[in-house]
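[Q] Does anyone have a clean structure-token version of this?
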Amino acid sequence: DDELQTDGNRSGHFQNGELALAATSEDVIRVIAAQLAEIGDQFDKEIQGRVVNDLVQHFLSEHLSREELTQRMSRAVSELARCIPSDMEQERVQLVLAMVLTKKIVNTVPSLLQRVFNTTLNYMNQQLHTYIVEMVSA
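[A] Here you go.
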């Protein structure tokens, strides 16, 4: 039931003594987030407007299902991952690209925030869940 604030902090209260554990987890998550943001800034320059505009058009289409949108996001991320030279793990590249694409789409058409966020979350749960869990627990 915690609510994510725009600065990455959680609102609400911790229950059952979770405060100490949560503080440690939050520190780890902040470090990972900072690293991903830095990588995202580098990738941001490489993503062409055409890719973003194509995805915007798909998200604006009312007849596409959630699964179809997730597949489109997955294809765009895969194509970009092949075009961007990187010595990083493929999963990390895909994670950062998905987040950068989400940001660019929402910056282009802010009214798509909920639809794009839900699609990106669905994509990450389907394609990158194990990687994310391993990254946070490492």
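[Q] Thanks! Anything notable?
[A] The chain is about 70% helix and 0% strand.
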